[in-house]
Amino acid sequence: MLRYTFTRLAQLALMLFIGSVVIFLVIQNSPGDPAYIRLGLDATPEQVAIERERLGLDRPLPEQYLVWLSEALRLNLGTSFATSQPVTEVIAGALGYTARLAAVAALLALVVGAALGIVAALRNGGRVDVAISAFAAMSLSVPSFALGAILILVVSVELGLLPPAGAGLAGQSAWEALQFILLPALALAIPVSAVLTRFIRVALGETMSQDYIVTARSKGLRRSTIVVQHGLRNALIPTVTIAGIQLGGLLAGAVVVETVFSYPGLGRLTIQAIRGVDYPVVQGALLLAAAIFLILTFLVDIAYGLIDPRVRVGGR
Question: Which segments cross the bilayer (predicted)?
């Protein structure tokens, strides 16, 4: 297991390096001169030249990347063009909101997806299975921004159950904060839960038709014991990977959902930074999102190795 873990760590480091290079090159080739953005269009060529030298933009591109990477490793991502605050502070303020939103969405997606997938697998071909499959297909066909708008219209406007947007006020109770999180969390969780539902349904359905399940039934074991100890345990192996990828994708979905719900998280901050040509914030937010996704993928690989020893052997 130790060798398997070190191999995955090396892969993680390589992917983080490649991701940082891609993000750096994308920002470097974005339209606009950072010196002009900071000084304004009325700046003289001499002022722009001095600012470019101060920002290190007159250096060769590889040198600029190495300087930026070394600073990023020390959690120094530069200064925001819009607010003149350190980028790490700007991102940290939004990251807490996104972390809470992603945690609630992940919990909802796992609980709902697992429950519906298990029920559909055990009622294979029945009306319940058809209804759950239809719900999953419909959930996957609706874009996140449309799903968010529907939830606002139905739950907030028509029923008046939850606030339609924002994150509330400072000093509010945990329950009040949760009310602002629930709608965007549902918008994020529903598509993910639909994927998990379909995947668990197929994986558990195939497992329940195996010979060892038939043998367990012939021994007179209770159905709950067969499902939990034999069926789910083996169906969990392929499900872990898809679950990890889907939960990692919550960050990508948060960009749209946070914008729809005016939720002050990392996704909305990124959109605002792009609109305001605040490249240091965009660069820092993209780097953080890539790091979180890759770390989650690494943790999924480790969990996969712990669940199935054959993966560790094959990984050598």
Answer: 12-30, 101-122, 134-157, 177-200, 235-261, 281-307
Token pair of 70 as six digits: 């070394």
Angle at alpha carbon of residue 100, lines to 98 and 105, rounded to 5°: 90
User: Which residues have a Cβ under 8 Å from the Cβ of 232 and sit 6 or more positions away?
Assistant: 118, 204
Assess whether pLDDT exceeds 80 at residue 38: no
Lookup: tokens for 72: 């990023």
pLDDT of residue 14: 92
Phi and psi, residue 158, nearest 5°: -75, -45
Instruction: Tell the burial category of 33 from Cβ atoms under 10 Å away from its Cβ (0-12, 13-18, 19+).
Output: middle
What dotted CATH number matches 90-147+187-315? 1.10.3720.10
At which residue do the structure tokens 């083996």 appear?
Answer: 234
- The span from the CA of 67 to the CA of 314, in Å, is 39
Give the integer Cα–Cα distance in Å for 103 and 108: 9
Residue closest to 198 by CA, chosen among 115, 109, 136, 131:
136
Q: What is the DSSP string of 108-142?
A: HHHHHHHHHHHHHHHTTTSHHHHHHHHHHHHHHHS
Any idea where the domains of the chain sit in the sequence? 2-73, 90-147+187-315
Confidence of residue 17 (pLDDT cuts 50, 70, 90): very high
Contact 35, 52 (CB under 8 A): yes
Residue 159, both tokens: 């029923």
**Cα 316 from Cα 314, distance rounded (Å):** 5
79 DSSP β-pair partners: 86
